[in-house]
């Protein structure tokens, strides 16, 4: 339909003296009046002209795109006294009755309220009755996906072989909920969302027919807000006609819908591009004071970022959805300044914020949080880049970073070896200090030493804070890289504690031994010459493998090479609450801990290394709960105790 075409409202819609809404008065009455569904109109018209009309049709699509209107037009085309014809007259009694939904031979059934098997049984009994005056008895079932499974099953036989005088037309917004046995018996037509410019043209024709002057920009705003639904746009126009008197302007639309004008959006977008959070806050405050909803503002900003992305990748201005076409070059410059990565991150931030706002009463605070994040896009780093930088470090550096001791604490080997002879007090002016446990800070420094230590502590605290801000998976990747590099590091590098020592020993092992050794639950020293390794009851197999004589001998050799002296290694079972109370184990282990264990699994690390892959999502197997329950109830043989 074009702007030049004029619309005439249905005469029967006003004859009763009661007001009828625009969406009903200007409902399409013929295939030529359908907007945005030319493929459906052509297919149905050709079927009628060629005599290839089926017995069951399924119309699918979003709300307000013309499904039920098309079903009525199709029914008129089949039953019109001049037909079957692709152009019903809309003047005969049958056409007029179908248009108002009063025809006795065209039954419109609401699937949501007539969804049971009893209603379908009644329908099956009635289909055998011939139409009273029309050519066909036509059943239009709206929202057919709401029928129950039993109702669908009862309908199957009738739908497959209906009487020759019966036609079925099903309409639905969710075809995925319809059984495949029903779908296979229908001719399916998918109704597309209507383009905004087509909706605006239709609204302009309605305004001319109503004798109302409307600003084209106001109609474009209504069309965009309708999101492809003609009925929604007409309902908004109806509301706008009641809201304003005289000419409809864009300001009226902004005020009624609680949305911001493009000037405010442009200022907010410029503040984000300039990384000016204060200016962004000021624009948000001014918008809220003007009656703009925070959620609507973020949705509009999301559309602006979408247009920026489209402009950057080279799309023409005709694809703009939120900004005027004349500002396309300005949008392109802003998009180039932010970059594709920045634009995608911005859209993800807004989308996440909108999802949270629907469940929160602090909408404005969440909107402000999103604006701050948008203004700090240049300080964000992709996790892939962080991983790449860590993996590019030398193995020795990665190993040192993964097992660095606390500031001021001596290496573990120094605490295990005999204390070195103290240097002379005359040389340093200091009393020789005793060796302290791992994790204690150095005491008794001079003023200069204290200042240097404070500065180092601040640097270490800053580094720790930065590390905490990194994702958990980045830290795990770094530790895995460090563990792999430990095997190649020089023998002079001594691990800093028992856990690091065991990690270095496991890295020197090969094959299954290395994978199982990494599953140790806890490692600690008993004295200076005994390393005790605990395995949880979740990893009994790993314990059994590691305590084999040949495996233990290899572990002792690695420990001797790392520490420069022999160390005894003992493998023990960590008796956790899962052993003492196996029935409560499933309540103790949280889903987050299970994901952590999955991320730490050696098979995952091996797959990443083998395929050069990056984890995208961590999801335990469906049978994890069942397997975990069986694993947390070890037998006496698994625990190393004699069976009865």
In short:
By secondary structure, this protein is α/β, with parallel strands linked by helices. It has helices at 12-15, 22-25, 38-50, 67-79, 93-100, 117-126, 149-160, 180-183, 196-210, 216-226, 230-243, 250-257, 262-273, 277-289, 294-312, 328-357, 363-375, 383-392, 395-402, 412-416, 425-428, 447-469, 472-486, 498-508, 511-517, 540-546, 549-563, 577-580, 585-588, 591-600, 602-611, 624-631; strands at 56-61, 106-110, 137-142, 166-172, 187-191, 522-525, 530-536, 568-574. It has a five-stranded parallel β-sheet, with helices on one face. The chain has a three-stranded mixed β-sheet with strand order 6-7-8.
Q: Would you mind describing this structure in some detail?
A:
This protein is α/β, with parallel strands linked by helices and 644 residues long. Among the domains are: 37-192, P-loop containing nucleotide triphosphate hydrolases (Rossmann fold, 3-Layer(aba) Sandwich); 258-380, Zinc Finger, Delta Prime, domain 3 (Up-down Bundle); 494-644, GMP Synthetase, Chain A, domain 3, CATH 3.30.300.180. The protein has 32 helices and eight strands. The strands form two sheets. Strands 2-3-4-1-5 form a five-stranded parallel sheet, covered by helices on one side. The protein is flat.
